Amino acid sequence: MTISVAVSGASGYAGGEVLRLLAGHPDVTIGAITAHSNAGSRLGELQPHLHGLASRILEDTTVE
Q1: Is residue 2 a part of any domain in this protein?
Q2: What are the E-state strand segments in 1-64?
Q3: Are 33 and 60 within 8 A, CB to CB?
Q4: What is d(CA 5, CA 3) in angstroms, rounded to the nearest whole number?
Q5: Which residue range forms the structural domain that includes residue 15?
Q6: Is 8 strand, coil or helix?
Q7: Which of 25, 36, 38, 51 is deepest in the core (most CB within 10 A)?
Q8: pLDDT tens for each residue of the chain, 64 residues long
């Protein structure tokens, strides 16, 4: 069973660590990746160690 997850605050230290752990999990698919002040940036610019997710664009964190 695969679980789809979203990570909010992905540009910060904790968000980067959560993404690192989830990226290596065989039963997880990473969905939305958000960051408030860094929305629109490529994840690889802020978290260069996340090679497999580097091209993903950070979405704005909203209440929806």
Answers
A1: no
A2: 3-8, 28-34
A3: no
A4: 6
A5: 7-53
A6: strand
A7: 38
A8: 999 999 999 999 999 999 999 999 999 999 999 999 999 999 999 999 999 999 999 999 987 6
**Ramachandran class of 25: left when φ > 0, alpha when ψ lies in -120 to 50, beta otherwise:** beta
DSSP class of residue 58 equals P
Structural domain total, the chain: 1
Residue 22 C-beta-side C-alpha neighbours within 13 Å = 20
**Measured between alpha carbons, how far is 24 from 32 in angstroms, rounded to an integer?**
17
64 is a domain residue: no
Answer whether 16's CB lies under 8 Å from 50's CB: yes
